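Suppose a classmate hands you a notebook page containing two proteins, each written out with its sequence and a corresponding row of structure tokens. How would you begin to make sense of it? This section walks through that situation. The first entry is reproduced here exactly as it would appear on such a page.
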Amino acid sequence: MSRALAIAPGKGPMAGGEYAYEVLNLADGRRTAQDIRNAVSATYGPVQLDVVVEYLGALGSIRVIEAVR
């Protein structure tokens, strides 16, 4: 059974979808998942690294992004 990705609303002026969209915007091939988590947390409040990793994995599975090695 799969579970829904739980990217909770942020505390800043943007929340919900914008919050997840920011994770996608920051996935530029140079930043690590930790870097992305840190940047999003600085803007929106605490974000768990495993949630960001899972979201990036989901984006990768539908070929929106791909891993850079």
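The notebook's second entry, a different protein, reads as follows.
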Amino acid sequence: MVTLKYSGSNGVREHILRMNDMASQLKGLDMKISEDDILLASSDMHMLHETKNFMSKNFDMKDLGEASYVICIEIHRDRSREILGSSQRAYIDKVMKRFNMHNCAPTIGPILKGDKFSLLQCSRNQLEQDEMERIPYASAVGSLMYAQVCTRLDIAYVVGMLGRYQINPGMGHWKAVKKVMRYLQGTKDFMLTYRKSDNFEFFCKSPRVASNDLNRRSYVSNRLSSLSSGPRESVSSTDDFEDLGIVE
């Protein structure tokens, strides 16, 4: 029996496919479905072909071969070096054009020494609020967040900071958003890579640094988890200082 179920998540409709006839055989197969695109991954080529044949008999579908582009992520392969990479150059170019930053000069980093964020940078009067209403701040932060979640872990910290001010952003926050875009402009060819490794190793790095948020005396922990040769998870969290005396 094949059943197709629809569910919603954050306003985006997701398709969930359940194939009861093949449930016992799909343990080594990873399937991702987004709208009308399906991505299959498996180390067992026989199982992969069997799955495609099974689905072709039940659905009107077209096999496009090896995946090269899915949900704004470009997939790169170097089989001779056993490297799999993912990048978002096309997506970044699209974001740049959308926010009229496609001709901007690049910068060396998304956040530089001395950059600070605070509530004092928020809009403080009606004139400033009216000015910010014409600026797509929340949309820009959301666009950066998608790149951060998919391939650009290097902007996780600053995007998390800028996301705190979406209710009442100020021009200083908007300038910081554009600085992140300028950084992406110069690093759009960066790629998240996975290498084959025979060493099954779990690695977790979690440096703690003082937050750039002047409103909170806190540390920010950025945890990067890696399984074997590829990053698996990136998490940013904030902890309040227990001893305020250590801060000037």
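A careful reader of the second entry would note: The radius of gyration is 22 Å.
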